[in-house]
Amino acid sequence: MPRYSVDLNCDMGESFGTYTLGHDAAILPFVTSANIACGFHAGDPAVMKKTVRLALAQGVAIGAHPGLPDLVGFGRREMAVLPEEAFDMVVYQIGALAAFVTAEGGAMHHVKPHGALYNLAAVNDGLAEAIAEAVYQVNPALVLYGLAGSALVRAGQQRGLRTAQEVFADRTYQPDGTLTSRRLPHALITDQQQAIDQVVRMVQHGTVRAHTGEEVAIQADTVCIHGDGDHALEFARRIREVLQSAGVQLRAGV
Predict the structure, then answer these.
(1) I want to staple 101 with a disulfide (CB 3.0 to 4.6 A). Which of 106, 133, 145, 253 is the partner?
(2) Where are the bilayer-spanning segments (predicted)?
(3) Could you tell me the pLDDT band of residue 61, with boundaries at 50, 70 and 90?
(4) Which domains does the chain have, with CATH numbers?
(5) pLDDT of residue 2
(6) How far apart are CA 133 and CA 47, in angstroms?
């Protein structure tokens, strides 16, 4: 079914120490929700506080972006974590960000796992259930963001959480609705117009064309745009303009 409103989310707060990543301050005016790194795969306390303040100033919904403890690999390398370990990691990271949000007078809106943790939870029922349980026990009012049609979304719904089914602007899809592995050369969409066309198709028509050519049904509650690319700011501006011109309302929430 076509959607007339959608959330635009962006992963942020991924700088740490002396290293600066992304274009957070510049992109925030063009998105409706921000997923802020919590120190495991990226980010640090000072960056978390700064990013929370920036998001609140722009009226952007704030979410925790918990990842695996893999700073060197940016949380994108798979680790053999048990569900109980995933539960502990997610509770810890949600709590860290929630403290900064509370200290700045705001309220946290959602949780979106990062990288390998996100991809593992998309297909592993045990990890998905552990993450959903962690979110529920910390704050059952939080929205759980997960890959559209994934085990994580199902686990959140079964636990009684509100969920947002997420699609990606700059990633290619497999016929089963999963993302193409970043290890493969065709995983990323680098052509800006192709990425925009993919988003419009997913939001307005509820389908995505798999890398192999099949049309796959997909639900787009929230669209992820990455903020660390060379043309990230230009893309954020263009995708917002295109969706609004098509009559799609941009807002956080499900």
Answers:
(1) 106
(2) none
(3) very high
(4) 4-250 (3.20.20.370)
(5) 53
(6) 27
